[in-house]
Amino acid sequence: MGKPTVLLIQPPIHDFALYDLYLKPYGLLRIGKWLERSGWRVDFVNALDYKDNETTARLGRGKRKSNGTGKFHRTELPFPLKKTERKRRFARYGILPGVFKRKLSESSPDIIMITSGMTYWYRGVVEAVETSRTIHPDIPIAVGGIYATLMPDHCRKSTGADFVVEGDAEPTVRRILNELGLPVPSAGIEGPLLLENVWQDAGIIRVNTGCPYRCDYCASAVICSSFTPGEAERAFSQLEEMHKRAGTVNFAFYDDALLINKERVLIPFLEKVIQSGLELNFYLPNAVHLQFLDREIANLMVRAGFREIRLGFESSSSDFHRRHDDKYSEGDFPAAVRNLKNAGFKPKDITVYILAGLPRQDYREVEESVRYAADFGVKVSLAEYSPVPGTPLWRESVEISPLPLEEEPLYHNNTFFSMEWEGFTLENLNYLKQLSLSFNRKL
Ligand code: SF4
Fold first, then answer.
1. Predicted TM-score (pTM) of this structure
2. How far is the centre of ligand 1, averaged over its atoms, from the C-alpha of 215 (Å)?
3. Residues 6+ apart with CB under 8 A from 71
4. Do 71 and 207 fall into the same domain?
């Protein structure tokens, strides 16, 4: 008997706009490595493969940057909703449907595993399940990832998948394999599958898992219930392996809480990077906790090769922090910016996120925060609120929004500005965007 085979699928994404800011199927490829180490054959179809030759020949090459970010292939789709006043262009991002289909048919799997991202990307997951079904009608399909975790019932119904994997994949995947009479790995999950095509332009590192904070607008605790510090040694050897085998020099951190427990994890990790003499670039698609940005860590980050810093400031209002996240004390922000600039980060390398459009938030509070942050000579970026199922703010969002958030996840997309009210209109939001832009241009 041959090896059991799993077909892993990164689905295409249907959205109004999409930019590849280190968007990689990290969790799915960790499952791939876990199964491969236990004797499985692993096939992987990446519908977001921006290097696919056939798609490039038809649609052209999307603009990519040397830091590993850039555009995906894009094909326009009809606007998906009937009852919405503000229509925007909608598109499918990824390889051509015909290419996707052919790649799926090249595998003869015993089980198919599909990952999912944002809830409002669910239509790409539906497409992946439907296409897989037409090609492999008798093969069980499991869908996991963020959408599957946050909206398991919706996922079951919309995709018709045989299994929906909620939260931590390992125990559920073990149960599914067992139920199907397929071999169950005895070891634990560790590191992602090393595929040159995926990791060459940018690698992913995650040193810690989860976040100890409980901000009421964030899904971190729903996706991963507790904070687990990682191991510097292990994270470094994964980075080293990726660098050696795929030639990766750009690395993005997927951590929600990179600086927590930094003395035990991040500091020794960065010291290893510095000692290795490797010339690497580090990026932060997720913001870091600015209260932990002391002089030591700021200096180490510069020496290790961090090219940017993103700060989760959210608001300059102490009332905001008391109500929503309890993660900020006055003085933290000026100290963090001072430490970063003294360490050598330029104003344009430091981006500060200000949250905009929370339920009942007044736009004037956001305006004050934008002006306050910009005064420190850093880039200001509005993080437009997107209601996320399972978060403490979800119920309130559903109650006050005129949009059917529970029925149609597309409305979670911040393009719909679902929390609009007379204290924060679309006009106010556009004004705040312009204001931030005008400050950023002066840097
Ligand atoms: S917003 Fe940041 S600090 Fe708050 S729970 Fe999410 S990851 Fe943690």
1. 0.96
2. 6
3. 19, 20, 50, 62, 63, 64
4. no
